What does this fold into?
Amino acid sequence: KFGAVTTTSNIASWDYRASTLTHYNNRFGRMKAITLGYTLPTAWLSKIKIEQLRVYFNGNDLFESKSYPYTIDPESNAYGLYPINRSWTVGIDITF
It folds into this structure.
């Protein structure tokens, strides 16, 4: 599993056998996008002269689960130097 330790500075004598010393299980999951919305019943809205009212939430990259704390993001080309951009929007659509 581990490569042999060398004490010489001569590069020709270094141990280049394959080693899994720095290999990790980098499983992860991410919630890329979610949209939740609710349209209120027209019976409630007819009293206040609104034809339709919809409340919604939209989020991108809200959640990430990793098995190792220093996992490089496979969707990034910046080698994990920058965090992912999380964004969310809350809104109301009203039709009179």
